[in-house]
Amino acid sequence: MDIETLREYCLAKKNVEESFPFGETTLVFKVKGKMFLLTSLDSAVLEFNVKCDPEKAIEWREQYAAVQPGYHMNKKHWNTVTADGSIPNRIMREMIDDSYNLVVASLPKNMRE
């Protein structure tokens, strides 16, 4: 997965917007104003942070060396994923989907619809 594929995948989701709230090199994707993925644009290899169910976060870390506790994030709820080719794209899309769905589920009911 590369940055353009990641960007297109995130923006294809309902009510997603991108922004640069942490500076011009950190791209953030939000659903209804809540962050579900962020990535640095100045890394040699694509890395991104995704929100996770705490049990699933540990499971991903144990299964893939390229998944680590979230860099500069709450390590219980966020993972940093390095797209170094060791994780199938299907699995990375699943991580992104899980993050998006967790954030949507946390929104007030009137915002979820």
TrEMBL record:
InterPro entries assigned: YjbR, YjbR-like_sf, YjbR/MT2646/Rv2570-like
Identification of the protein by name: MmcQ/YjbR family DNA-binding protein
Provenance organism: Puia dinghuensis
